[in-house]
Amino acid sequence: MPPILEARNISKRFEGTQALHGASFSLEPGEVHALMGENGAGKSTLSKILAGVCIPDEGEIFIDGAKVTIDHPLRAQQLGIAMVFQELDLFPQLTVAENMAIANPATREGAIVRKRELSDWCEGYLHQVALNVRPDTFLRDLSVGQIQRVAIARALSLKSRVVLLDEPTSSLTDDGVESLFELIARLKSQGVAFVYVSHKMAEVGRIADRITVLRDGKVVGTKPASELSTDELITMMAGRKLDRSQRPQRTISNDVVLKVLNLRTNFLSNINFELHSGEVLGIAGLVGAGRSELGAALFGLRKELEGEMVFDGKFFHPQSPAGAIRRGLCLLPEDRKSQGVFPQMSVRENASIAVLHRLRLGRFGNEAKEVDALQDRLAVSAKPDALISTLSGGNQQKVIFARWLLAGPRVLFLDEPTRGIDVNTKEQMYGIIDNFTAQGKGVILVSSELPELWRCCDRILVLHEGRQAGIVTPKESTQEDVLRLATGTHIAART
Fold first, then answer.
1. Is 465 in contact with 289 (CB distance < 8 Å)?
2. What one-character DSSP code corresponds to residue 366?
3. 298: part of which helix (H) or strand (E)?
4. Rounded to whole angstroms, how far apart are CA atoms 19 and 11?
5. pTM, two decimal places
6. Exposure of 335 by Cβ count < 10 A (0-12 exposed, 13-18 middle, 19+ buried)?
7. Res 470: pLDDT
8. Which of the residues in the chain have pLDDT under 70?
9. What are φ and ψ of residue 451, in 5° steps?
10. Share of the chain residues as helix, strand and coil, in percent rounded to the nearest 5
11. How many other C-beta atoms can be found within 10 angstroms of the C-beta atom of residue 183?
């Protein structure tokens, strides 16, 4: 019996970069086949070619043994292939139901939209992905994690035989991941096959049947997941052994960089904390707990605030992001695609855009020199004049890091900075955080990965439904303590 999907000798080049070089891959019915590799290895490019988003320069694709041409996403859908992108491609100005129905052959198209019928149709798929929102909810009102579930629900509604998942759990909490895995297992039993792109080692070990590793656009090898240890997998990905760092011993000053008293927004209430010089303060909580809302409030994106904030001993109430940047607080957003990068601008322009006024005045020297020096320091593997949209997710994230380091902030608010990033790039970013705090500055780090919070943070503030559930220290607490606070279990235990 032939594979349900096979790619042979696929090559693709972007603006002088060889993204894929003779890559081959096969997928069996009812299989979860993981694609792994460092950022820029070619995983997402191969997935996009299979989904009809990119057209290969060379190579062949077969469905059930028959050669096919996939030159458009609609053609891929007709062949039973759907893709859920890491950088979500849905429409924020439309409702959940409209996003699921648009260009979907499973729904009836016409001049009259039967909203009730449309809602009834999509509710079953929303239930499958454990998303408890009304179908008439606008996508712009959902969190990134919720939007990701909508994308998965849409893929299921297409009755696809092959589902390509590009970092599907990057914005999901542990309960959301378990729900997704249960769903995948159920669909596998029905013969649905999955191409699973992820950087999370433990996750891939649990869910994948086989793993194909790419490096520099070439396939290094394909092995059963049960035969690959984490160390072996990392060596295949990086071509070398990786030394994982531990949380350094930090010198945390008594000086308070940022003090927040009784902060309240339309969603948050009674938030109180201090960030000290040289400290990393973690922010934990489930999807929708208010983690990104806190960053928006501190960065001047929420004007209706109550409470008191003090930054370096002075009253702090930014009315705009520009005001926050001037005071020395910068935000790296969770959704880099819609909130972080300018896709039609170059790497250099994306890095320098926050400090152009200073560069023009000559206070920081030449723009090219400043940006290129940071690019080398952060190991951004791209030419400064290349469009940032051609970079891998990890390299885009490094460019945004470079932007804020150029701005010379006193405090960095990092919202899921390693989402969808390979293990080697994660270590590089941990080093950036460590170096930043070693200069006596402060970091607020939002992460859905508890091991990451334990690696990076000195204290962890836990949010539950917009309220502060508590502050813990990794040395004196366990990850289970954080989960109890994040889920509100500690409240039930007291009542």
1. yes
2. -
3. helix 291-298
4. 7
5. 0.61
6. middle
7. 94
8. 15-16, 39, 86-88, 106, 108-113, 170-174, 238, 240-245, 287, 357-372, 374-378, 381, 420, 489-495
9. -60, -35
10. 35, 25, 40
11. 17
Task: Give 390's contacts (C-beta < 8 A, 6+ positions apart).
Answer: 14, 15, 17, 382
Cβ contacts of 338-341, under 8 Å, gap ≥ 24? 338/92, 340/396, 340/397, 340/400, 341/388, 341/389, 341/396, 341/399, 341/400
The sheet with strand 81-84 has its strands ordered as 81-84, 162-166, 193-197, 32-36, 210-215, 218-224
Looking at the chain, how many residues does it have?
Answer: 495
Distance, CA of 411 to CA of 257 (rounded, Å): 8
Q: Which two tokens stand for residue 192?
A: 């649905």
What would the two tokens of residue 454 be? 């334990």
DSSP letter for each residue of 229-258:
-HHHHHHHHHSS-------------S-EEE
Asked if residue 149 lies in contact with residue 131, where contact means CB atoms within 8 angstroms, the answer is: yes
Q: What is the edge-to-edge ordering of all strands in the sheet holding 306-311? A: 271-276, 256-264, 306-311, 314-315
Please state, as a whole number, how many other Cβ atoms lie within 10 Å of the Cβ of residue 71.
Answer: 12
Q: What is the pLDDT of residue 257?
A: 95
CB 256 within 8 A of CB 275: yes
> Within 13 Å and on the Cβ side, how many CA atoms surround 76?
23
Yes or no: say if 56 and 209 are a contact pair by the CB < 8 Å rule.
no
Q: How far, in Å, CA of 228 to CA of 251, rounded? A: 39
Question: Taking each helix axis from N to C terminus, what angle separates 423-438 and 230-238, rounded to the nearest 10 degrees?
Answer: 90
Average pLDDT, the chain: 84
380 close to 421: Cβ distance less than 8 angstroms = no
The sign of the CA dihedral 28, 34, 39, 41 is negative
